[in-house]
Design a protein that fits this description.
Elements lengths: L2 E5 L11 E8 L2 E6 L7 H16 L7 E6 L13 E10 L2 E9 L4 H4 L3 H4 L7
Parallel strand pairs: 3-4
Antiparallel strand pairs: 1-2, 2-3, 4-5, 5-6
Length: 126
């Protein structure tokens, strides 16, 4: 089941109004996707998203692989049914996550099944 979380920029620039993301956490993997166009992008807000998820779930982030799913809901250059999935490389500075790299990855349909409403529709239609 998808959960929703507000996020800020991270890196000390916390602002819950910066954006909202949906995510799923299962089998040691967390996929998140921004759902507010015009808010902070998930690229710029990745640390804030990860921190919000970790705080909400009470998990050790070093045991989780994080993925950023970009759809037309958060990125206007993507059309409905287009998406980009990237795996994040993280380091932890003072216990805070810092993204050091984004690697484009292929995904199985099973990984993305819960996100189909966000992949196959546009935020303006909801």
């Amino acid at each position: 089941m998808l959960r929703e979380v507000p996020y800020g920029w991270g890196g000390g620039h916390e602002s819950p109004e910066s954006g909202r993301a949906v995510y799923v956490l299962e089998n040691g993997q967390c996929i998140f996707s921004g759902i507010v166009r015009g808010g902070t992008s998930t690229i710029n807000g990745a640390e804030g998203i990860i921190k919000a998820i970790v705080d909400l779930e009470g998990i050790d982030p070093s045991e989780i692989k994080f993925f950023d799913l970009r759809t037309s809901w958060g990125y206007k250059h993507l059309q409905v049914s287009q998406f980009e999935l990237t795996e994040l490389t993280l380091v932890y500075e003072g216990g805070e996550p810092k993204v050091t790299a984004w690697k484009r990855v292929e995904s199985s349909p099973d990984m993305l099944r819960l996100f189909l409403p966000y992949i196959t529709s546009d935020s303006s239609s909801n």
